[in-house]
Amino acid sequence: MSQIYERIINANSTEAGKAAMAIIDTLQGYIEADKGAQAIGLCAAFRLFCERFNLDIQDVFSATGNLISSAQGDIRKDFQAVRDYLSNEVGL
Description:
Layout: H1 3-9, H2 13-30, H3 35-52, H4 57-68, H5 77-89
């Protein structure tokens, strides 16, 4: 198992939530008028990041899903804040 994958599966949800919020906030301010470009830009960065570190995209998605969900199956508060920000602050 690669060192970066170990860090992914052991990631701190608070720090990951902060990173997600910072990415969304930056993306919103950069190209707010073009949601299509925002979506593709975000996905392209993710894909290229995975390629750079030889990470399987599906493994990273799976680890992310595990981190977002609490043991009870609810969304963790760190990621609920990101979801709320997207719902309330990021419009079409």
